[in-house]
Specification:
Shape: rod-shaped
Strand content: under 5%
Number of helices: 3
Largest sheet: none
Radius of gyration: 46 Å
């Protein structure tokens, strides 16, 4: 019963708990990704502000071009972090749902196993009761046989005694020879 207790009673709850914990951890990672995305967005806005310089020169133009390129990389990184956050949350939901499904299946298997064990135990008990009844009946018959044989021997020992004749008559009526 320890195995059934472990697998049947503890495991479904453990799977459900593990699914919820995994979902919560992935949700926390998604929030971290969103925080990084906001930080990158803020840095990108600061960089964009730096490109609004007033002077015109070849160096200023190179600076604006480089910052613009970095700005587009910032936007791409921000979008990727947002997408990663969405995928992390979705993965957490899928993991939780899958583990809850396993827990449900395991609980159902536990119930079916319990029912099968109950049926088999009842069948075995019925067999033991039948065997015990047969054994008692055989013992009763053996005891009667011993008593009848003893009565016959006593009647034969008495010989011609009227009491012996009565015992022999009773034995004959009982079908004992």
């Amino acid at each position: 019963m320890d195995m059934m207790d472990t697998l049947g009673l503890v495991a479904p709850g453990a799977l459900t708990g593990a699914g919820a914990a995994a979902q919560e951890r992935l949700r926390a990672l998604a929030e971290q990704a969103r925080t990084c995305s906001r930080q990158i967005h803020g840095a990108g806005e600061q960089a964009a502000g730096a490109t609004r310089i007033e002077w015109e020169s070849e160096a200023a133009q190179l600076f604006r071009t480089g910052m613009s390129r970095h700005g587009s990389q910032v936007v791409l990184a921000r979008d990727q972090l947002e997408q990663a956050a969405v995928e992390l949350e979705l993965a957490g939901e899928q993991i939780r749902a899958h583990l809850e499904g396993l827990a449900t299946a395991m609980a159902a298997a536990r119930d079916r196993l319990g029912q099968a064990l109950h049926r088999e135990t009842q069948r075995l008990l019925d067999g033991v009761q039948d065997l015990a009844g047969d054994t008692v009946e055989a013992g009763r018959r053996a005891l009667e046989s011993v008593e009848v044989c003893g009565a016959r021997a006593a009647a034969e020992a008495l010989g011609g005694d009227p009491l012996a004749a009565g015992v022999r008559s009773a034995l004959a009526q009982a079908g004992v020879r």
